Amino acid sequence: MNHFDAAVHAMTTVSTGGMANTDASFIPYAPLAHYVAVVFMILAALPFIRFVQLASGTARPLVRDTQVHAFLVVIAITVAALSAWLVLVVRLPPEGTIREVLFNIVSVITGTGFTSTDYNLWGPLAMTVFFVIGLVGGCSGSTVCSVKIFRYQLLLSAISAQVKQLHSPSRIFNVRYEGRPVEADVMDSVIAFFMLFYLTLAISALLLVLVGLEPITAITGAATALANIGPGLGPEIGPVGNFAGLPAAAKWVLTVTMLLGRLEIMSVLVLFTAGFWRD
To answer: What is Dmax (Cα atoms) for the chain?
Structure first.
């Protein structure tokens, strides 16, 4: 990259903003630039407090953080599985394919939104993978939006506790996170967030269909706006497309959805309660 391109992409990588100064995003750049971006997109999706602790001389909190472990495991499994399918089944060349999968998976899961290839061409399985991981997100305390890893960890812990409770009704099973019990009000807020997030996604997608978008564009457009990812799927808003051709009504729906996603819904919802204004 030249100096200006490097400065622009460095800022939008660390902020997981994903805006490039050309329509081609990372497509024109050398493979080494892709690997550099992958490293810093991952770092930007980790809790920033861990870097403060690391700078103060202790790496233990970062090394022992379970959401960091889960985030890296999700990336590793997804990249390995999709790469294996593309190389062994679709018969794409290994080196370039693994790099493209790694770059684009990391870009989507962190909500950065850079693209280095048109992964729509990889088929329905790949498109489904990209849709799902965009709704996972990175770690709390980072610049990443979407649901975030720790909420899925809490949800799985709650499901596990409920299954164990059904198996042994006379015992008490607490929801635990990083070895510590989770208070009921914390779990209530997590469940409420999940319900509101996916309800907002459904309403936004429905509104986009009503204003004339075809289903794939509507659903993935709603998802990418709510999770603040960037590219959607399909020929129009996919990795090599953009939102310029959408009708004005669709852009208004997506604008509101992006704001809700960036503010994580609950903060906006409280503005519409009478008690907030009375206080």
So the answer is: 67
Write out pLDDT tens, residues 16-71.
Answer: 888 888 888 899 899 999 999 999 999 999 999 999 999 998 888 888 889 999 99
230, part of any domain:
no
236 and 245 Cβ atoms separated by less than 8 Å? yes
Domains: count for the chain: 1
Q: Does residue 192 form part of some domain? A: no
Give me 253's structure tokens: 């729906």
pTM of the model: 0.89
- What are the backbone angles phi and psi of residue 180, rounded to the nearest 5°? -110, 145
Long-range CB pairs of 215-223 (<8 Å, 24+ gap) are 220/131, 221/246, 221/250, 221/254, 222/253, 222/254, 222/257, 223/131, 223/134, 223/135
Secondary structure letter of residue 140 according to DSSP = T
Look at residue 167 and tell me if it is in a domain: no
Total residues found in the chain within this entry: 279
